[in-house]
Write a structure and sequence with these properties.
Chain lengths: 154, 94, 193
C-alpha cells in the first residue's frame, strides 16, 4: 500500500521551495481534491470548491485543445492583479499552484514539472489500489453501511 | 527596446566571443526569451538565475550598496556571467 | 467511487436536466435546509443573471467517512461540453424534469443527451432518480405524459414529484439517489469477494 504521506511530502516540498507559492492543490480530473498544502493564511478558504473549479477549468482547456487539434495541454496560467494560478497535468491528476503576482514564473514552472512527474507515479498507484486492495474492503463496507443508516435519519 | 532583432543580434554577438558556451536571455519573471541551449537547460538556467538575481537585489537593498549591476558565478566547470537589466536578464555561460 | 488520501469515500452525484428546470434551486435547498448533513462550501459558476454557466458544487456528508460530492450542470443547450466534463466520474444522477408543458421536448432532449453520453451505464452502473419538478404549476403537464417523453420505461427508476422552490420531495429524491449509489457499491463489494 502506498504511503499517503508521500502526497503531502511532495506538495509541501513544492510549497517550501519557492517563496511566492501560497497554496498547492492536487485534484483529479473529476473534480475531487486529493491532497493540498498551504502556507499560513489569515482567511479560511474552501479547498474542495477551489479544487473542483481548478479541475473543471483545466479539463475545459484540454477539451478546447482537442477541438482546435493543438495537442496535449501542459500548463494553464491565470494571471490576476494580486496573484497567479498555475495548473499542470500530472497523469490522472491536475496539480494546481497559487502564487503571489511577482513570483518567478520560470521557477514555478520548473518546480511544477518536477513535482508533476513524481506525483504522476504516486497518483497512478494510489488510484489503481482503490479498486484492487481487498484489505480495505471490509472497512469500506462498514463506512458505506454506516452512511446508509445515517441517510435515513436526516 | 527588446525587439526580436535586438535579441537575435545580442545572442549572435555574444556567442561569437571565444570561450562562450551558451547565451540565455530571460524575462525578469524567469521566462526564457531566447537561448542558444536546449529548452530543458534554458528553462533551468532562467529559473535559477532569476531566483539568484532576486536574492542579490534583496541583499544589496538591505546593505544599501546601490543598484545591482552585474553578477558572476564562478564554478569549477563553468562560469555564469549575469547582467540584470530592468526588463530582462542576460546570462552568458563560459 | 473514490477515496481521498484520508481514506474518506467520495461519490459524485449530479443534478441533470434542461435549462431552468430547478437543478440549482434543489441543490441550494438541500444545502440550506437538510439537517443531519455536514457540508462544505457552496461553489457556483454562474452568469451575471444567476444562471448556472458551468456547474454548482457542494460536498455533503451523512457520516464523516462518506462524502457525496454533489454537482449541478448548466442546462442551456450550448453548454454541452461543460456537461460532458462534469459527467466524468459520475456515480449517480438525479434528473430534474420540468412540468411546464412547453418544456416537454426540452426534457426529452436533455435525457437523450444523458443517454448518449452514458450509454448503457445509465440506470445500471450509474443509478438514476427522476424528479418531476414544479408540480405546483397551475398548468403542469401530466406526469405520465412527461415520463413517456423521457422514455425510461425499460429502466426501473424511482420517480418523485417535487416543488424545489418549497423543498417538497427534494430530500426524498436525494436520499433515494444516495441510497441507490451506496447499495450499488455495497453489492459490488460483496460480489467481488
Amino acid at each position: 500500500m502506498i504511503d499517503v504521506k508521500l502526497f503531502e511530502k511532495i506538495l509541501s516540498d513544492l510549497i517550501k521551495s519557492e517563496s511566492g507559492i501560497r497554496k498547492v492543490i492536487l485534484v483529479d480530473r473529476t473534480g475531487l481534491t486529493i491532497a493540498h498544502a498551504s502556507k499560513f493564511s489569515y482567511y479560511p478558504v474552501d479547498i474542495d470548491g477551489i479544487g473542483a473549479i481548478a479541475s473543471a477549468v483545466f479539463v475545459a482547456s484540454e477539451e478546447q485543445g482537442k477541438n482546435l487539434d493543438i495537442g496535449e495541454l501542459m500548463l494553464v496560467t491565470s494571471e490576476f492583479e494580486q496573484g497567479k494560478i498555475f495548473a499542470a497535468s500530472c497523469g490522472k491528476g491536475v496539480l494546481c499552484v497559487i502564487t503571489d503576482s511577482d513570483v518567478n514564473i520560470g521557477m514555478v514552472r520548473l518546480l511544477m514539472k518536477r513535482a508533476a512527474t513524481e506525483l504522476e507515479k504516486v497518483l497512478d498507484e494510489f488510484l489503481s489500489e482503490q479498486t484492487t486492495l481487498p484489505a480495505t474492503e471490509e472497512k469500506t463496507r462498514e463506512k458505506l453501511k454506516s452512511a446508509l443508516d445515517k441517510l435515513e435519519e436526516f | 527596446m527588446i525587439s526580436q532583432k535586438w535579441i537575435k543580434d545580442t545572442i549572435e554577438r555574444l556567442s561569437s566571443h571565444k570561450g562562450v558556451k551558451g547565451v540565455v536571455i530571460t524575462s525578469a519573471e524567469g521566462i526564457p526569451l531566447s537561448s542558444t541551449l536546449s529548452s530543458d537547460e534554458t528553462e533551468k538556467i532562467a529559473a535559477f538565475v532569476t531566483s539568484i538575481v532576486d536574492k542579490a537585489k534583496k541583499i544589496i537593498n538591505e546593505l544599501g550598496t546601490g543598484k545591482l549591476n552585474f553578477l558572476t558565478v564562478d564554478a569549477s566547470k563553468k562560469e555564469l556571467l549575469i547582467a540584470p537589466e530592468k526588463d530582462y536578464i542576460l546570462v552568458v555561460l563560459r | 467511487m473514490k477515496k481521498d488520501k484520508d481514506g474518506r469515500v467520495h461519490f459524485k452525484i449530479i443534478f441533470w436536466g434542461p435549462s431552468l428546470s430547478g437543478k440549482t434551486t434543489s441543490l441550494r435547498w438541500i444545502y440550506s435546509n437538510v439537517s443531519g448533513l455536514s457540508k462544505g462550501g457552496f461553489t457556483s459558476i454562474e452568469d451575471p443573471t444567476g444562471r448556472t454557466l458551468y456547474f454548482d458544487y457542494t460536498p455533503l456528508s451523512a457520516s464523516g467517512d462518506v462524502i457525496f460530492d454533489v454537482y449541478t450542470v448548466a442546462g442551456q443547450k450550448r453548454h454541452k461540453h461543460q456537461r460532458k466534463i462534469i459527467l466524468q466520474g459520475v456515480d449517480g444522477i438525479i434528473f430534474v424534469a420540468d412540468s411546464d408543458p412547453s418544456q416537454l421536448d426540452a426534457n426529452e432532449e436533455s435525457m437523450e443527451e444523458l443517454k448518449e453520453l452514458l450509454k448503457d451505464r445509465l440506470g445500471t452502473e450509474v443509478p438514476l432518480v427522476i424528479m418531476i419538478n414544479k408540480r405546483d404549476l397551475p398548468n403542469a403537464a401530466d406526469k405520465e405524459e412527461i415520463l413517456e417523453k423521457l422514455n425510461i420505461a425499460t429502466m426501473d427508476v424511482p420517480i418523485y414529484e417535487t416543488i424545489a422552490t418549497k423543498g417538497i420531495g427534494i430530500k426524498r429524491a436525494f436520499q433515494a439517489i444516495a441510497r441507490e449509489v451506496l447499495l450499488r457499491k455495497l453489492y459490488n463489494l460483496k460480489t467481488m469477494t
